[in-house]
Every structure is written in structure tokens, then in C-alpha cells.
Amino acid sequence: MPTRRQFLQTTAGLAAWAAAAPRIADAAGAPKKAVLVSMLPKELPIADRFALARDVGFVATEVHTVNDPREADAMKAASEKTGLKIHSVMNSDHWKFPLSSGDPAVVSKSVAGMETSLKNAALFGAGTVLLVPAVVDPQTSYAEAWKRSQQVIRDRILPLATELKVVVAVEEVWNKFLLSPLEFAQYVDEFKSPFLKAYFDVGNIVFYGYPQDWIRTLGPRIARVHLKDFKRGNGTFEWKNIGEGDIDWIAVRQALNEINYDGYMTTEIDGGDKAYLQDVSQRLDRFLAGQKPVTT
Q: What share of the chain is helix, strand, coil (3-state, %, to 5)?
């Protein structure tokens, strides 16, 4: 686990590399609206789900790891037919089989899941695979999680990601790991690879930080963004629709502007029917325009 001094030293040393590294991005311009595939009506065939997402204003979707080759081919065909891009694959095995485990068999299962996810991404033409890099628990210390996960990613995952030209985007997801923006930046920088970046979730860090601060600190390390809101109560909390929680969305938009983020922003909230999804899409339009997502 890095100290602040180590972070500053590494950041300074990597400045030239960061400027020269190829940017893994799509067309320049405003951030692009995406929807998590699980938000779309599950009773519809996949092509109809994708068409619905396009109809209400989304340009892309993020899907979960697809183990069945026939299902993967169907998703690719649906994307091509509807024009809804699959921009990212959310790896499915990093919680059940964490890379930071001390059990080699568990780690191997996690690596196998990432290999499938990376191949999915290459098939779909997606630019990233989301990875929860480590889990700190009673059996795994913070330092062990840091060292083990980096070694496995560097030795067993990044070679394939580099070959396929797919970015591994690591995310902080209440895994008791990467609990500050300085640590998150340090963790990414130590790989010194354009194929290892950050997947930033606006809602996940509200317990212990401010998303606009994290965005400015992570800067160009951010490959993708998740959007959801978060409401605190008297000792309670709940996930909320965009604009209905405690997040300062105008400040978040300003921070994204400052780092020139123009990648995909994926809503990760409850799903619903066409009218509901249309409303979510319109909330994102207001957010992108620098306005409050919910009108009053």
C-alpha cells in the first residue's frame, strides 16, 4: 500500500509516460450515454432490448461475462443489427473468486473468468473489461491484496489484454480496497500500461469521499464511468435514481469537463419499462448539459 510520498514520486515519474501513452477512446466529444444490460426488460429478446435502448436515447450498453458462445454471438448480432454498441464487459467472477486470494485454485478460476471476459470484449468490439481487482477480508490483508492482485494482473491478465487491445478497468466496489483517490491513482500507475486504467463509479465512493474530487485526481486514468445516486439517512442508506440522492451532479459534470472525459457513462440503477428508461435517458441529457438531472 503506497504512502502519499510514494504516490507523488510515482506520479511525477510517470508524467512523460502518461502523455505519450496511446489513448484508448472512441470519438472525441461529449461523454456517451450507456445503459447496463440488466436494466433492460428481461422478457424481451436481446435484439429487442437493444433496440429499446436505442429508441430512448442510449448509444451503448455494458454486458456481463457471457460464457455461452452462442449467446455471445447473439449479442454481437443484436448490437450490429440495432446499432447499440457494446462498449464494456463486466467481469462476473471477481467476487466469488478474488484475484487477491491466497488459494491458487481460486485465483486460477478468477483468471479464467477474466480471459473469457476479455475474449467477449474482443468479439463485441468493446474497449474495456471491468475488474474488481482485490477483496480485503479477514483472510487477506490490505497489503496482501495489493501485492497479490497486481502480480496476477501483470503476469496473467495484462498480456492477453494487450494482445487483444482491450483495457482492463479496475473499480472500487465496497471491497475495502482502494479507499482513496490517491491510492487508486497509485495502483493504476504502478502497472505502467495503457491497458490498465480505472473504472470510476460515481456512487460507490460517497461513503468516504466526493466523486468530483476523485474524478479530478484520477483524471486521464479513467477509462469508463458508472452513474448511480446514493441517499444517506439516519444510519441507513439506499441507492437512488440519478438526481434523487446526495450527489452534487453539477459538480460531477464540471469535474468531468475539467479532465476532458468523453468516454462512456453507464447507468447502473434499477431497470424498468420504456417510459422509465426514457426518463433516465432524459436525466442524463440534463446532467450532460450541466443542469440538475431532476426538474422540480
A: 45, 15, 40
